[in-house]
Please model this.
Amino acid sequence: MNGVDNKNPSETTKLEKGYLKSGNAKYNIVEYLSDGNSLTSREAFMMIGTTCLNTHISELCRNCGFIIPRKMIEVDTRYGKKVKVNEYRFNNEDCELADYLLEEKAHAL
Model:
């Protein structure tokens, strides 16, 4: 098929192809969560500037091997109503993987 290789890329190849390119939303999410912070969609919009946090989290889990546990929390809307939203936070394994990926990316620069 025209010499196209459909294999899944290795972790090194993922980094080289920009899966965690410095300054993009996924990189900023990993960096923010690796500092011990939790993140909701509203916080992601205000702090990181992304409106599709759930998509980025899913892609990080699928492509980079993160687990990223989700917890439903209640928050107040601007109209005073209570709604449930996902809160994302790294577990110990995610922190170790993030440290490795962020360190690899820093050495690649």
